[in-house]
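We emphasize that the prediction below concerns an isolated chain of 440 residues; any contacts that depend on oligomerization or on bound cofactors are therefore not represented. The input was used exactly as deposited, without trimming of termini.
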Amino acid sequence: MSTGLLFSRDDLVFYIFPTHRHADVEKLKELIRDYGGDVCDYHRLQSDDERLGRSEGVALIDPTQLYAPKLLRKREKVDPDGEVVLTYLNWGYAQLCVDQNELIHYDVARRALVFCRGSWPDGSWRFYFSEKLGQEKEHFQKTVRRIQKYGGSVVFTEDIADVFIAPDDPTLLLAARNRFEWDPQTRVETESWLFECVDQGYVKFTSPPVRRMPGRRPGSRRVEFTPEDDKHLVTYIANKGREDGQGLQGIGFYTRLYNSGLEWAKRHPPDSWRGRYGNNREEFNAHIERYRARHPEIHRDNYGRDNRTRFQNTLDRYLSSTQRNLQHSKDTHAQDKTGEGQVARQFNEEEDEEHFPPRRRRRSDQPRKPAAQVPREDTGYEMTEDDAVEGHELPALAFERTGAVRRSTRKVPKRSSPKKIARSANKYLTSRSRPRAKGL
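Result of the prediction step, given as a token string:
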């Protein structure tokens, strides 16, 4: 049979089922007409044309459409008399016949086009196998040959794959699907899914899970807040919220309220409770203060309350910084004994003179004279837990402009709280008149 007349049969008519891929449809029409075929409008099947009644119709289905699995599973359309009027095939059938240079039997074509998605050459689904499958070489090669036999192809680059084959493990499968959740070009399936497609003769992807959209459901009425709801909210915030009022603007506090198991808390979602307090904050705060004044026992401890904080312990931060200062002082003193510290100070002085004046604005245009270095001795002092105890001496470091460091001690006044001790120590260490040493 001549290739130019491959589809030139009076009893053969092609119909292209409606699809949104218009450019591919035009290419397919051109391919069929080049080989002597006839492509008719699918909607003409409903007419009483004499030729359509006696012709064998082949409906070419785009396998990427949602209706494709249903029609490919149906296979044929039968009239009331029991005669086949239309045969549903993958629209790669035309290209398959051109490649083989003959009209392929419909059952054979169905098996050869299971993983075919396009009507053009090499228009197959491209599969990529996850590295977490852990397949042996022989098993992997056998799977690749099976995919190629049914019209598919295997790629070794994840970016160009159409189907990502993940392990059957539910955890790994869910992780892979979450990874490609927003990728419209890549589907995630398992190896067992491949065998199911081969058995049924067409590709049907797993539908993505449907999740509930946040907000009020269509047709439902808004549940209005009642005075009882406000009283419950005041009581809950007074007992569970922070005394300074922090943490009441975020959604986390009200999410815990919704999941607390209280029956009245289920009347409104967390966003509604949050909005109720935020829109009437002043009124709620007044009621909360009055409630706490009548129940002073709720502030005795923080058990069962929101005890989150945005600040690190100030005393711990001071102690850690003091340890770094002491270590820096010891390293500098050790370098001075070996002569390395003197060379480093000379280098720093030359560098300061070359780049003077520094960025900080000075009152005088003349460079300041370097401060005299104070001789010091290595006392071997090490930090202990008793340094933060009331009445003990806390070591502090004073830094000159030239980089010299001298040790000094400061007596902690008695009858001072730990907060005052830490605040005064931080103020002393971060004074602008004493630049911080390198590395602090």
